[in-house]
Amino acid sequence: MNAADGQKIAMRGAGYYSANTVGAKYVIDRVGDLVVGAVAKMPRLADGQPFAIADFGAADGGTSMDMMRRLIGAIRATEPDRAISITYTDLPHNDFSTLFRLSQGLLGPSTEAPLAETPALYIFGSGTSFYRQIVPDNSLSFGFSATAMHWISKRPCMIADHVQAVGAAEAERERFRAQSLLDWETILLSRAHELRSGGRLALANFCVDEEGRYLGHTTGVDMFDSFARHWRDLLRAGRIGESEYVNATFQQFYKTPDEFAAPFRDPASSVSRAGLKLETMFTMVTPCPYAEAFRTHGNARDFAQAYVPTLRSWSETVFANSLDPSRPAADRAAIVDDLYGAYEADVAQAPEGHRMDYVHCVTEIVKS
Ligand SMILES: C[S@@+](CC[C@H](N)C(=O)[O-])C[C@H]1O[C@@H](n2cnc3c(N)ncnc32)[C@H](O)[C@@H]1O
Fold it and tell me: Which pLDDT tens digit goes with each residue over 186-245?
């Protein structure tokens, strides 16, 4: 794809996403206490009104399923008969089929009763972007999102010699920042329409934290620099062309806590005027489970073979879609395999320092 704006964003399907992103699940589980606490603070709904939940950017829904069980348990603890709906949202080409099969118990662990068999729980999927309003005005009780809103609505430019804004030239990075700040306002204003009065949002978003840490950049090797280096190696080897090299630009930006908080600090902002208040905000680092496991088992090859697929689950489409579509599909697949193969060999050979620690900014937002 050569245009600077649209990028087909997708996690790898067929259950590969949640099966290979145990760390993303840990992040959601860690936000569980905040979610349960938020529900306890909400005004009681009128009789007959459903408690409507939405998970924005849910992928295949596998990583949030335990948290959803907890959330439903918290609602039902005080209101055993309350009807509850969950609208799982993601982009239209998301693998909703896997999401439905996971929630119906046709895929995944069979240790628990399928979520969809919970009495008076109604599950929906929506392929509408979170940059638009997804559910009707004043209908949403609780909105949740994890690890999704760093995907911005469009790429303001391509990054000439890196893959992500964290490694971009200053001017490029500022264009990504401006797009991301505009997008944050759009996300919040859409949610402000959807939320009932007293409704809440719990959002765990990737960020650059107070110490400058971000995903894969906490200590040791910088993950995005590694991607960029291996991609550059393919260019140097003549395996990919210059425009393919540049096209591999992640449509992402990591905001700082200050940037997340800015629209709430100004009482005259459109977000404040829409009635949204930031009640809680904190950052958290969730250790890379693969690097932690490596500290115990010490087998570099096993580490590489477990670690690189987790990177692949969310990054593969960026590289695959940057390739010239006139190449035969097998050629494109082979190039992508070479990229991850080189990364895996790199980790297997020098495992120390490779780790994808997650760095999140967690916000709890209430609509007055
Ligand atoms: C890394 S996954 C996170 C999935 C899950 N929430 C979790 O925490 O494990 C990011 C998800 O955000 C989705 N996404 C990206 N941009 C989106 C948008 N504009 N609207 C809805 N979903 C979006 C992607 O398709 C992807 O499924």
Answer: 999 999 999 999 999 999 999 999 999 999 999 999 999 999 999 999 999 999 999 999
Looking at residue 149, the DSSP 8-state letter turns out to be T
| Three-class SS state of 65 | helix
Ligand 1 and 91: CB distance under 6 A: yes
Distance CA 175, CA 157 (A): 7
Cα(230)–Cα(319) distance, integer angstroms:
11
Tokens of 4: 């600077």
Amino acid of residue 277? K
Please name the amino acid found at residue 224.
Answer: F
Q: In what order do the strands lie in the sheet with 195-206?
A: 121-126, 84-89, 51-56, 140-146, 195-206, 358-367, 276-286
- What pLDDT, on a 0 to 100 scale, did the predictor assign at position 14? 54
The answer, yes or no, to whether any atom of ligand 1 lies below 6 A from the CB of 59, is: yes
The pTM of the full predicted model, rounded to 2 decimals, is 0.94
Going by CA atoms, what residue is nearest to atom 8 of ligand 1? 146
**Separation between Cα atoms, residue 84 and residue 206, nearest integer Å:** 28
CB crowding 74-110: b at 16 or more within 10 Å, else e = bbbeeeeebebbbbbbbbeebbbebbbbbbeeebbee
**Could you give all domains of the chain from N- to C-terminal order, each with its CATH number?**
16-217+250-288+357-367 (3.40.50.150)
Q: Which atom of ligand 1 is closest in space to residue 313's alpha carbon?
A: 1
For residue 171, what are the contacts with CB-CB under 8 A and spacing of at least 6? Answer: none
Closest alpha carbon to 99 in 185, 40, 31, 13: 13
CA torsion sign, 18 to 21 to 24 to 28? positive
95 CA to middle of ligand 1, Å?
A: 11
Whether 95 is in the pocket of ligand 1, judged by its Cβ within 6 Å, is no
Written as one string, the DSSP assignment of 162-185 is -SSGGGS-HHHHHHHHHHHHHHHH
- Measured from the Cα of 145, ligand 1's closest atom is 6
Q: How many residues does the chain have?
A: 368
Arithmetic mean of pLDDT, 303-326: 95
Residue 327 CB: number of other CB atoms within 10 A? 15
Measured from the Cβ of residue 149, the count of other Cβ atoms closer than 10 Å reads 23
- 19: number of Cβ within 10 Å: 17
